[in-house]
Amino acid sequence: MNQLKWVAVGFALAFIVLLTFATAYQTEVVYDRYGVKVILQQSREGSEDVLVVLKRGGRSLEHAVFIYAPGEREWLYLGNGSHRRTVPLGRFVAEGQRLINKLGYRGVKGVKVELGLVIFAQVFNVTERGGRKILEVYTDIFAVPLNPTEVRGKRVVVEREFTPVYKIEQPLDEDASQQIGPQIRSPGTPPMGMSPCYDPRYPKQFEYCYFGGAYSYCYYWALASSTFVDTVIAPLATVYLDNAAGPKTQRMQIDTWIYLSSSTTTSLSFDVAVGLSGLRLSLATGISFTLSDTSKSMEFISATGYVYNSRYDSTPARLWDYIRGGYGPVYPGDKLYDDGVVYVGILGELRYTKWAYVYNRYDGSSCQIQDLNYADGIAFYPWGDPSYNGAFYPYLVIDDTPFALKETKALLAAMSAPNTAWKSLPQVTGRDYSIRQSNVVEAASTLDISLTSIPLAYVATTSGSGSLSLDFGLPINVRLSTSAKSTTVTYIQFTLTGYKDGLKWSGGALSIGNVKTYLDPYGNTILTNQWLAVQLIKPTVSE
């Protein structure tokens, strides 16, 4: 990869104009993490747009970008741009704000709410191999968090160190002339739809293709489908009692506390999860909450769930909500007998998206359009309670028939997927067994993952008549970002009580691997084949 002769814009005119513009107008860096830098500039025209600047080894690259954003009901295609052309953000400003309002975060105080744009960035490279010319097409996929109100009337400049995660190759005719760059049309040229070939999933405008003497190749990422899947209760802290451990467990308690403060956690975010050719990408961010008033703190959830095994105790399960000062909902019932799956979770929307990677070829007389691959995306958007400044809605979920509910089926799919492992939990002898957050998250091997991954892999089909489970256990990663070098910026604890003294406890915590994600808040480096800790423990108990 380091030996590639990347096509560079040796200080292209567009970049010079960008620098001149930055000098003349006030700029503000609003985000600089995970390999993405976001700069806001006052727009000369008064409208909002985004310009993506890709770099490799300090040099700017010619490229194409395909930009998607969450809307009130589904994902939106905002447009395709390049190193010299911006993409309008007007639809995102309108629909993104409607989504934030719909989720319950209108008027929240002390916290900035941002939604993540998903960007597919593409670079061409021509090389020779075995005496033949080969067109290499590289794709980087990343997310850019923006607040719709903040970008109104602004130009957003996104700087990204190009880190491709996907590559295809196209053999070229040996006698074909070589030209890579923007398609230039003379006055009166018909709109796109004539060449390259018309694709109803994609707007009639291309910026960056490969052109030979008598043909053109365009590669692009088109939105194949966008589905609001369901309202779900996303698991944050889960206990799975199998038919061996369940009968020996009398009760359990799950404590969950997530908050923001200037001295601990300054931002909370839910990633967009993307699966492509067996690769799992965790993109920061799908939706994020950043402390904007450092003189205050904000609690998103503070709750304790109490569950009793009805074999020993008929007391109904209950959830105490400290934020609201009362008992919260228990779903679907308040009884557990021996084995089952129990978790404390939060209410929100789950959305499933499929993007197609399209090959579009035109030779002057015939068309060829082919979907070469697909990328699956899942995003979770938690609902906020406007009466409590956007605090999440906590739920205690009891699946008395293990993995029967749609959310617990997702856990089962993740547990049985490739590249999963169980991290050993401490061994303790006694009646009580207590597992804290630090025992579970160590497998993440990073300071920035201090909570969990949510394996919401179970999604409905577009027809709603059935269901499917993504075969790679796609997780939604929850990030808590902090400047403190500690993994104790939030509090989760599992406490289990056996039916008698002297029991021997151990077990495992689930981890998901083969994930590429930007995690290091200090070096902004990509971690490959990372293991993300899932807040799911499976205890073992013996006499």
Describe the secondary-structure layout.
Layout: H1 13-24, E1 27-33, E2 36-42, E3 49-56, E4 59-60, E5 64-70, E6 75-82, E7 87-88, H2 90-103, E8 111-129, E9 132-146, E10 154-161, E11 166-171, E12 179-181, E13 209-211, E14 216-241, E15 249-260, E16 265-276, E17 279-291, E18 298-308, E19 318-321, E20 326-328, E21 330-331, E22 340-362, E23 367-382, E24 384-385, E25 391-392, E26 394-399, H3 406-415, E27 420-424, E28 428-430, E29 432-436, H4 437-441, E30 452-454, E31 458-460, E32 467-469, E33 476-482, E34 491-498, E35 503-518, E36 526-542
Parallel strand pairs: 3-10, 14-36, 17-35, 21-26
Antiparallel strand pairs: 1-2, 2-10, 3-4, 3-7, 5-6, 5-8, 8-9, 8-17, 9-11, 12-13, 13-14, 14-22, 15-18, 15-34, 16-17, 16-23, 16-33, 18-19, 19-20, 22-23, 22-26, 24-25, 27-35, 28-35, 29-34, 30-33, 31-32, 35-36
Strand content: over 45%
Please outline the major beta sheet.
7 strands, mixed, barrel
Q: Output the radius of gyration.
A: 25 Å
Give the CA-CA distance, first to last residue: 56 Å
In round numbers, the mean pLDDT is: 80
- Tally the helices: 4
Summing up helix and strand content along with how strands pair, one would put the structural category as mainly beta
Compute the number of strand runs.
36
Question: Could you say which overall geometry the principal axes of the C-alpha atoms support?
Answer: globular
Percent helix: under 10%
Kindly give the count of domains. 2
Q: Uncertain runs with pLDDT below 50, 5 residues or more?
A: 1-24, 174-195, 442-451, 457-472, 484-488, 519-525
How are the strands of the largest sheet arranged?
Answer: 14-22-23-16-17-35-36
